[in-house]
Amino acid sequence: MLKKLFPTLSHLRSGVQILMLFVTVYGSVVVGHYAADKISNALPVLSCAYDMRSGGYCVLVPIQHQIHHRIGEAMVRAQQLTSQMVLPLLMTLLSFFVFFFIIGKAFCSWVCPLGTLQELIGRLGRRFGIHLRRLEGDDLGEAKRIRPVKWVLLLCLVFLLPLLAGLGVAPHSLGNPYCDICPSRVATTLLTGNTEQLALRRGGNISFALGAIANVLFGFTVVGALALRQPFCRICPMLAFNALFQRLSPLRLVKISRENCGKCRICSEACPMDIREISGEEGSKAFTEDCTLCGRCAEYCPQDGIIKMKWGPLSLFSSSRSYYRDKVRTELPDGSLKPIRFVRAVKSHD
User: Given a cut of 50, is residue 140 above it in pLDDT?
Assistant: First the structure.
């Protein structure tokens, strides 16, 4: 039954993405605000808390708030370490770990609404013939040079600035700086018809600057996604946060060595994050911190059993030549879609 509904892994993922896009943006309309808050209060994707209809909650929000309002202020007031500083943060992280253990970094490619929107915009760009831009360049690779950005954003905007604001060293308006510049805050609220988050704030120079940066990042994400696959995911601190704990989840991609492996480079071409190591390495080295477990490398590997998606000892999906042949009939490894045929070609009998 599932095979009829979802003939390929990509179709299954697209179905999950669309479903989760609806749940994370409009979820509370169905289950109510209270239930939505209780069910997914720490869903580790960019499901924005600023969206009043949201059915999900970005874990970066409570982390910033806990560091700002709990850790920083508790250190100033010299209150008890366990009850005022450590415990609230641990509870936030614990709820995150429960979800993360099951699905790991696949939250980024299967659940995150901003990731889904970028993929949909990218498909629209391919459909209209917009040339795909790949981050390759020299031997080091442009994609590899960009990787540290997400770690800098995680350290500075999610951890350091909220802590300094809680200590009174930085202005109070820097209490949750990442949320103030996050393009998902703008994108997901716009989907509900709410334009408030798009408007620039006049509450001070810092608030105005953060709002302007958010609009620039939103514009960069929307326009960039037409020609570059997953542009914001490459610098997203959520991806870095998930990468910190990736070994805690049993869900993973596995690649074994084969004599002629690495010559076709189709798996690297299929990767939306332009991870070049997939085709040249084996084992865990083939999948860097940029990997979102989307599974496209396994789908487009033309050899049997080279790349597998596994959950613990269970093999969920394995590359195969027959699957690859069926897949490329409708979509190429780089995401380009085959032309839609409305009339079946008639063979000539001459």
Answer: no
